[in-house]
Every structure is written in C-alpha cells, then in structure tokens.
Amino acid sequence: MSHAEADHDTRRSRQWLAGEARGAGVDRDRLLELGAAMAALTAAADEREPVAVAPAPVGVDPGIAKPLPPDLLRPLDTNAEMRWTALAGQGYVVPNDRFFVRNHTVTPHLDADTWRLRLFGTGLRGAPTRDAPVEFGLDDLRRLPTEESTALLECAGNGRRYFAEQQDDPAPGVAWGLGGVGVARWRGVRLGTVLRLAGLRDDAVDVMPEGLDPDYVTGGVNLGRVRRPLPIAKALDDVLLAYEMNGEPLPADHGFPVRVVVPGWIGISSIKWVGPVEVSTTPLFSPWNTRFYRMFGPGHPAEGTVLGAQPVKSAFELAWDARVPAGAELLLRGRSWSGNGPINRVEVDTGDGWRPADLVAADRGGPWQRWTARWRPPAPGRYTLRARATDATGTTQPDRATPNALAYLFDGIVHHPITAF
Ligand SMILES: Nc1nc2c(c(=O)[nH]1)N[C@H]1C(S)=C(S)[C@@H](COP(=O)(O)O)O[C@H]1N2
Ligand SMILES: [Mo]
C-alpha cells in the first residue's frame, strides 16, 4: 500500500516538474519560489539554538473544539498532541477525548443537515462541474452499506522535536513529540461505493477530496483548501468516508460530519470535513503532494523525495521525566507501529542492555502493537528508557533518524528520561 503511494507520488512529481500540473491552485513557478523560501528558512533554522517546546500561552484559542485537559492533550499552535500517559490503562483504540488534532487552521462547525458531498470532474460520466456536482447528503451516505475499519492515523511530522533534541538537527514545523498518532474504529461507507454511484469512469486516474475548513495561508500565499490527491486504485481499495469514530458521530475536530480515512498512508491523506471531491482522468496536484510532505535537504534532489509509508516508532505510556519509586518492580507499557506492516519484535533497554518486551497477543497483526516489560529501578537516580521495534519487513528503528529539511518521518530510538526516588 505504502509502496503504491511512493510510486504514485514519484510519478506525479515527475509530471509536475514537467509542467503537467493542474489543479494545484498555485502555479509551478510560485511553488518553486516557495521552495526557495523554505530552503532559506531551513538554513536559518540550522543556525538557531534548539528551541525548547513551550505550551501555547494560556488564553490563546487554538481553534480546537474539544477541551484540552493538560493530562490528556498538549496544545501545539493550532494542533494538540496526545499525552502518552493518557493511554496508560486504555484499550486498543485511543478514546476520542484524547485523540490528537492536526489542524492547518481551525475546526469548522458544519451543519449536518445542509452538508453535501460534492463529486465532480472528468472522471465521472457526463463530467459534472464543481458548480453542478453529483451530491450526497449525510442521510444518503448512512443508507449505503456500512464498513468498519480499525485504522491508525499519524502525522508525517510525528516525533519531529527529537530531530532537535536528540540529534541537534532543528527544523521548522510543528514540534510534535510522539503524540501525533492514534488508532480509532472508523465507521462509514467505502469511497469506492460512492464513486461508483456517482458514475465513475474506467479511465479515471485520481481522486482529490477537499476540506471545508478555511483556506491555508502560509508565507503570505493562499494555498486554498487543504486537499491531496489519491490514485484511483487506493481510492477503490480500503478508503472510507467515515461518519463515526469509536462508536460516536465524528467529533467536530476529527472531521464532522464526514472525513476521509486512508489506512496506512500519512495523515494528510485523510482529509477532514470533506466537501468537494474532484475525480479526474488526468493527474491532480496540490501543494500537499508537491510542496509539503516531501523530503528536502542533503541527499535529496531539489524537487524533494516522496514521502513513503510511516517508519517504525515506539513509545512508552509514561510521562516525560516520570518519577517512580526505586526498588519496586514496575510494569512498563508501550506501543509500537509501522506503516510498512505489523510489528514482529520489540526490545527495551533500561540501562543494562537490550532485552525482549512481551507483546500483547491479541494485537498481533493490527495497526499498532502493545507491549510490556518488567523493570525494578535498582537505586534512586536518573535513568533513560529506550524501546525499539522491528516490523514485518525486518526494519528495526535506528539510533539516529535521517535528517531532512521539513523533518518528517522520525524513526530514531527515543531516549525517555525517568527518575527513581
Ligand atoms: N480538511 C483538513 N483535513 C486534514 C487536515 C486539515 O488541516 N484540514 N490535517 C491533516 C493532517 S496533516 C493530519 S495528520 C490528519 C489529522 O487528523 P486528526 O486531526 O483527526 O487527528 O488530518 C489531515 N486532514
Ligand atoms: Mo499531518
């Protein structure tokens, strides 16, 4: 799946550079200018001291609808990351009250009664236009066959702050710890079902869902609505138009009334608050597959390298700088995941070498894997906990993640500080 995504992006990138781009909303020269601006920003960032991650100032509204209790969520600009302690004692899925929020702008408040999914483009029979699309209301979607999927959603920037904190490679962008990830049980209708009902043509190649949140403006440029194309093969495979999350109507922050869920692909593919959906017989582009979510910097060509699947990661369900009693046996808990397939092995180091963690049998083969390890801190003092996982492709987390200008795909082993007293 993820390899399919990389192939798709590589192909689209070549077409974009060859000037075939359409639908990007911003012309190619302007995007190249943005690229230069991004490079300058990165160079400036290289000369900066690593910046400590500060919570958003009290009283500043991040534009998120749900409460942000400090024990569950940490505000980061317009976003909020899950605290890993908030997963301790929880089941397989992340409850909605603590699921991370990644908003380019703010959570819009949409009216389910007037909301419409609007499909248009050359990839549908009769080529309906954006102004005269094929429409579905929420009730229409609810009447179609339902599908449930337990899927992991992760921001491509998850773990970004460790580039600065552990590797001295500071980078611009949201300073996520490891809390930009979650698993939920999504329920809705397959995108493929709706595309076929709307009159999908055999020669359609791309589908581009668009969010109804405000336009994204960055560096003084309006990039329009958040949107990212999907190849038709993926759109017809396991992609959902979800209207429920963990048995509740989709919460406002997670895309009410309907969002796209693209299992296995980086979070930006899963467009929230979806409204218009362009279906095309020619390739589609947006800044979110040409400008962002690509690897730039040393070792990458000027136009960047495609972002493939999410790499392997591991996290302890523990507070940063947790305090635990010395001499008492603890059951350390954590989770590991990979965009390339299930987790086969997890090892833990508490200061005296790597040893296997115990995997929760019920999770085998799922989008993430819970594990436990026993540890008795021998004496009062500071310790570093580390966990590293190996996925089904045999890939193990490295000591150091490969730097890239926009600091995506951190997969290094995180050094988790803990104090025994
Ligand atoms: N319309 C819209 N869809 C969006 C975004 C957004 O800002 N607007 N953010 C994307 C990104 S970058 C991620 S990681 C996921 C986050 O989903 P969540 O906020 O439900 O956790 O939504 C994606 N879909
Ligand atoms: Mo993201």
Tally of alpha and pi helices: 7
Structural class: alpha+beta
User: Strand order within the widest sheet?
Assistant: 4-3-14-7-10
Beta-strand portion reads: 25-35%
**Judging by the overall fold, what is the CATH architecture of the largest domain?**
Alpha-Beta Complex
Which ligands does the model contain, each kind named once? the ligand Nc1nc2c(c(=O)[nH]1)N[C@H]1C(S)=C(S)[C@@H](COP(=O)(O)O)O[C@H]1N2, molybdenum atom
Largest sheet: 5 strands, mixed
CATH topology group of the largest domain: Sulfite Oxidase, Chain A, domain 2
- Tell me, briefly, the overall form: globular
Tell me the CATH superfamily of the largest domain. Answer: Oxidoreductase, molybdopterin-binding domain
Q: What is the CA–CA distance across the termini? A: 47 Å
The CATH C-level name of the largest domain is Alpha Beta
Key attributes of the depicted protein:
25 strands; five-stranded antiparallel beta sheet; 2 domains; alpha+beta; binds molybdenum atom; 7 helices; Sulfite Oxidase, Chain A, domain 2; 421 residues; Immunoglobulin-like; 28% strand; binds the ligand Nc1nc2c(c(=O)[nH]1)N[C@H]1C(S)=C(S)[C@@H](COP(=O)(O)O)O[C@H]1N2; five-stranded mixed beta sheet
Notes on the protein architecture:
This protein is of the alpha+beta class. The protein folds into two domains: 51-281, Sulfite Oxidase, Chain A, domain 2 (Alpha-Beta Complex), CATH 3.90.420; 313-420, Immunoglobulin-like, CATH 2.60.40.650. The chain is built from seven helices and 25 strands. The strands form seven sheets. A five-stranded mixed β-sheet has the order 4-3-14-7-10. Strand 11 and strand 12 (248-249) form a beta hairpin. Molybdenum atom (MO) binds next to loops.
